[in-house]
Amino acid sequence: MGDQHFDFDQIVIGSGFGGSVSALRLSEKGYNVLILEKGLRREDHDFPTTNLDTKNYLWMPELGFKGTMQFTFTSKTTILHGVGVGGGSQIYANVHLIPPDAVFESEAWTKIRKDWKETLKPFYGLAQRMLGTTHNTYTNVADHTLKAVASEMGYANSFKTVTTGVFFPQADGQQNKAVKDPYFNGDGPERKTCNYCGACMLGCRNNSKNTLMKNYLYFAERNGVEIRPSSEVIKITPLNEDGSSGYELIVKETLGKQVRQYSLRSRGVVLSAGVMGTVPMLLKMRDQHKTLPNISKLLGQEIRTNSETLTTANNTRERLDDGVAISSFISVDADTNIEVTRFPEGADASWVYIPYVPMVTGQGFIRFMKFVFNTLLHPWKTYKVLRYKGKAKNSIILLVMQKSEAFIHLEWRRKWYRLFKNSITAVQKPEDTPLTVSFPAAEKATKLIAEKLGGEPGSALTEIILGTPTTAHIMSGVPMGRDQSNGVVDFTGQVFGYKNLRVIDGSIVPGNLGVNPSLTITALSEFAMSQIPVFSEQKASKIKRIQFSQPLDGQVSELKGTGDLAIALAQA
């Protein structure tokens, strides 16, 4: 088919880490690229000053809320994920960590490839340079207390400050300093140094956070990539059986109260809508619309929650809200990490959306009954922990992660509570390891931290009542493999059974990481894109390549030097 039959060479669905990497690298290879994003596009000043501003913080379009944070409730877990141009990077905690060797040596990773660590090493380096990964050196009493608790629990050497995607002051007294682009030889956007306000997870209004709009998407647009916000893909249809002739997409565009549908044709499609966008979309195309019937039966299977839970140290005698959102972490046993997480003063809704009560341990009905008796015996204590007003200033949330291999599955099923209509359903099978909401070592650490800070340890009420964990880092469900028997996609993200249909996002992460996944998703995306050949030498030759500046003090990457490091990496 001739070029006149296609609106674009590649359409990328979603603008998070996978989608941003894909759009930039495809444009560098001479493709004409469109990004479709269901959420809004925001400038820095558009982010809310508090998460109590529900209309601008939460994504609940049926209520007119078009913010950046979406809560998805399933029968097995509660999932937090970002919406809007830049995806989760708008409101994530900026943490960039490489998983320990044990992760890459686990069965989830080695069953499809034995050399993941060495394979991804250069791409981690490239991701770190693109995202401006830097050592955090700013700590407060919460971090010092975390370090003391690690020592008390026998893991003194485990305390570390995070590496993070933030533009920090380069000298004392240089907070809020506006400067020319410091990362990309002056070709990137102007920036301002961090003021340690703690508002990273509301959306940085200070131009200090290295969101995808400051790097991947910035250069993608420079290369001619078009980004259409408020545009949700509702159907994907190959133009022939295997998609080698291209794809037609039906798009729903919502501009204010006006909604329209239109179709686009593209040579190829990249799904980068995150696990809770990509997996349900492909399940619907395979099992409901029957437009992509050849997708592997492994689609939606073994989705990881990063084995996470949330606890809190409430109402302490200290002010804890200064610094970056997540500043340090410890290990409390061989499998469990804990990170200090903060919000700025006034951003108290984090204790509303996920309310906390005095800590109760255990699982299931026993834990629920402990909560009931606790509440009856200590109503005033329960009220003080549950009360949200003023919480952010002197309380912290502790993000707990494990490397354990528990998982759920997303399937297209008929459920009685949906009047026996088919829908996307989270399930666990009898042979699966149950998800846990109680981590004894983490609960012990939380109690010690709260005690040292003069506060009260708390458990998430949703986890107690529902018996399901909460995660901000849902992963997997579209496994890489060598064929349809052991994967849904190959190592370039191409879906088995189809041509030019790819998945590049957190869905392709093979297993739990035990650390924040953004850097790994970026590295995997860079790895996948590196294997796709140039589409148009003529167009590619006209693209201005990204030139790296000399690394800033504290910047972290094994990819050293200046200039066009991406091309040097490709040649190596």
Kindly describe this structure:
Keywords: Cholesterol metabolism, FAD, Flavoprotein, Isomerase, Lipid metabolism, Oxidoreductase, Steroid metabolism, Sterol metabolism. Its EC number is 1.1.3.6, 5.3.3.1. The chain is of the alpha+beta class. The chain has a domain of 400 residues: 3-Layer(bba) Sandwich (FAD/NAD(P)-binding domain). It is 26% helix and 22% strand. It contains 17 helices and 26 strands. Strands 1, 2, 12, 13, 14, 15 and 26 form a 7-stranded mixed β-sheet that branches. A 7-stranded antiparallel β-sheet has the order 8-18-19-21-17-24-20. α1 packs parallel to α7, α1 packs parallel to α15 and α6 packs across α13. It starts with 7 loop residues before the first strand and ends with a helix. The mean pLDDT is 94.
CATH superfamily of the domain at 3-137 and 163-309 and 408-422 and 469-571: FAD/NAD(P)-binding domain
Largest sheet: 7 strands, mixed
The helix content, as a percent range, equals 25-40%
Query: Which regions are unreliable across 5 or more consecutive residues at pLDDT < 50?
Result: none
How large a portion of the residues is in β-strands, by DSSP E?
Answer: 15-25%
Radius of gyration: 23 Å
The CATH topology of the domain at 3-137 and 163-309 and 408-422 and 469-571 corresponds to FAD/NAD(P)-binding domain
What's the architecture of the domain at 3-137 and 163-309 and 408-422 and 469-571 in CATH terms? 3-Layer(bba) Sandwich
CATH C-level label of the domain at 3-137 and 163-309 and 408-422 and 469-571: Alpha Beta
Number of strands: 26
What's the total helix number? 17
The backbone outline, from C-alpha atoms, is globular
Mean of pLDDT: 94
- The assigned structural class equals alpha+beta
Distance between the termini: 35 Å
